[in-house]
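Appendix B, example 12.
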Amino acid sequence: MRRIRRPLAAIFLALIFQGTAGADDGTQQCGTEEPCHIASGSYYAKPPSGWDGTSALPAVIYFHGYKQSGRTVLGMKALMRAADESGILVVAPNGTEGRWAVRGAPSALRDDIAFARDLVRDVSTKWPLDPKRLWVSGFSLGGSMAWDVACLTGDLFAGFMPVSGAFWRPHPSDCPSGPVTMLHVHGRGDKVVPLAGRTIRDRWRQGNVLEGFEFWREHDRCGTDEIQSTGDKGLHCREWRGCSGGKRLALCLYDGGHAAPKDWYPKAFRWLQEAVPPRG
């Protein structure tokens, strides 16, 4: 099945990104103050300050948390500052009624995987995207959305950096996407999305984060060799670089709760930049 889908994904990417050299000059009528509307939803977007209006942009699509919106993402000072300093376009989509239709989660108001594809297609008509630096992130339920996107349409993106969100039950047994590059961070003391998962209203269950990441290791066919690193507040990262297709995985845990560690986003963007495949 993967041998069939990967060429289709490559064709889809080519269709998305062709013609971006003739994109707008950066004076779009939507983005920061007014949302951009497409048939399946809407989103906000903010290019980095100092952008010349024509150079290809690295971009991160950031899925907001439960009952938040794209405007919430644009108000995340740490994220926006790090993206601006790294020259990254931030795309902040709006969920339906503040929710994402993550598999296994309560909401099923929209096909959000199809929305993610529509979103990339529309953004690429307004800003010249660098497809080798097109990333996905998200917080909490938005982090779970990032995991779903990685599983179901991950071939469209260069990497993922979810925060405090993972698969819901039942965990997938396989993903149609090929191997993915992912850097996931989670607080050991997270009570909203605990590492072990939790049951909500006796009906829905958040998945086990560690089990979910083990799935990614198997999916990416990573070897057993790993790199370990540490940082402030008990930050401990395990990284695997010998994965299929040159992909990389890293799982970082720290002594915190339902949030990203301080100064996380600059580190995450540097990691993703280092993971970009060579041009050619």
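The two ends are 27 Å apart (CA to CA). The first strand starts at residue 36 and ends at 38.
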